[in-house]
Amino acid sequence: MPAPHAAFRIGHGYDLHRLEPLAPAGEGRPLRLGGVELAHDRGPVGHSDADALLHAITDAILGGLGEPDIGQLFPDTDPRHEAKDSAVFLAEAVRRASEAEYALVNLDATVILERPRLLPHKAAIRANLARLLAVPETAINVKGKTHERVDAVGEGRAVEVHAVVLLARR
Ligand code: MG
To answer: 45 C-alpha vs ligand 1 centroid, how far in Å?
Structure first.
């Protein structure tokens, strides 16, 4: 059912994935953020490709629409989603936004990752997100932070993402 037609709707998404040594030493998948692969000796554990940035953005869009969340739409118990490219989940959120007659105004995301540094990859991530969301790069912002070496994220054992989107009625 389409969301109530306010002129604007805001959405927030959050995700965290545990980081483990890469297979075969551990369960970590290659570290992908926003569909861009970052070279690292650890990677996220997850049922899909475990791209925490794409998951948080997907949930932000779905949340803004008042739709079910990513875990409801794509349960991790479904073998069809094993190692799935998370761009597929984002595409479904974008499709639902379009169906509800909302367009993305802008996205602001914060990736919290101790290592590797996000900075060298920010431009590629931004460009890829603009492509996946079919918006200009000026509509996309991604910030990288560390967790100051404290707690699981700071010890390099997890990656965490917050994302906020603004949707406007077309
Ligand atoms: Mg996730």
So the answer is: 9
Pick the CATH number of 8-169 from 1.20.272.10, 1.10.10.10, 3.30.1330.50, 3.40.50.300: 3.30.1330.50
Q: Compute, in angstroms, the gap from residue 70 CA to the centroid of ligand 1.
A: 8
Q: Which residue has the tokens 């404290």?
A: 150
Give 11-28 pLDDT, tens digit per residue: 999 999 999 999 899 999
Q: How far apart are CA 105 and CA 47, in angstroms?
A: 30
For the chain, give every domain's residue range: 8-169
Full-prediction pTM beyond 0.90?
yes
Using DSSP's 3-state secondary structure scheme, residue 106 falls into strand
Q: Report how far ligand 1's centroid is from the alpha carbon of 82 (Å).
A: 13
Distance CA 19, CA 39 (A): 13
